[in-house]
Amino acid sequence: SQQGEEDPQALSIQEGENATMNCSYKTSINNLQWYRQNSGRGLVHLILIRSNEREKHSGRLRVTLDTSKKSSSLLITASRAADTASYFCATHGAGSYQLTFGKGTKLSVIP
Amino acid sequence: SQTIHQWPATLVQPVGSPLSLECTVEGTSNPNLYWYRQAAGRGLQLLFYSVGIGQISSEVPQNLSASRPQDRQFILSSKKLLLSDSGFYLCAWSPQGGKGYNEQFFGPGTRLTVL
């Protein structure tokens, strides 16, 4: 079963606006990762945040993790049309090789 | 730098036919290797993973099998395809160590349609 659940399922914004996507999970994790997938392509790793971290930045990306609420958020600032893609969160449980993916948020950035 | 290749990119096969999808990784040694399937509009489902040559773990019982004949080669196979095997198949690798608690790097995928 899928542990990560992204919210919203779809998001449409204007270029230049910020986009926020949320992810909730159910069990204890070692780390949580965010990936991007352009239509019909493979996934690209964006950022990994470990269970003992609360916030992480990479360029225009900001990820937060709240282990008490079992939730994470991905913020993309100053969005561009090229950011149009599906975004997935994935969790690594303790002692497991399995990376469990959510169903994704489909982001559309309108020029 | 590391690269991961998958082929073929697309495949249309009749029900009951065999399947062989190949994945190779360059620029790293002894990687963890993974096969995922993605149904339309869905997240990824882990099918198999491997931590070394000849070591395959299956996450979901199904009509598929996997093999790792060489360190950087991972093969997904089926003897007889079902309609439900249609989907987008992705291979990924991650560095060894840390029980796989690392980011994974994905190949471009194979779009399989079973008719």
Descriptive account of the structure:
The complex is a heterodimer of chains A (111) and B (115). Chain A is mainly β. Helices cover 0% and strands 59% of the residues of chain A. In chain A, the strands form two sheets. In chain A, strands 2, 4, 5, 9, 10 and 11 form a six-stranded mixed beta sheet that branches. In chain A, strand 9 and strand 10 form a beta hairpin. The radius of gyration of chain A is 13 Å and the shape is globular. Chain B is mostly beta strands. In chain B, strands 2, 4, 5, 6, 9, 10 and 11 form a seven-stranded mixed beta sheet that branches. The radius of gyration of chain B is 13 Å and the shape is globular. The relative contact order of chain B is 0.33. The model of chain B has no long low-confidence stretch (mean pLDDT 91). Classes of the chains: A mainly beta (111), B mainly beta (115). At the A-B interface, strand 4, strand 5, strand 9 and strand 10 of A face strand 5, strand 9 and strand 10 of B.
Gross geometry of chain B: globular
Model regions low in confidence, pLDDT < 50 over at least 5 residues of chain B: none
Order of helices and strands of chain A: EEEEEEEEEEE
Quickly give the structural class of chain A: mainly beta
Task: Report Rg of chain B.
Answer: 13 Å
Query: What proportion of the residues of chain A form beta strands (DSSP E)?
Result: over 45%
What multimeric state do the chains show? heterodimer
Order of helices and strands of chain B: EEEEEEEEEEE
Number of strands of chain B: 11
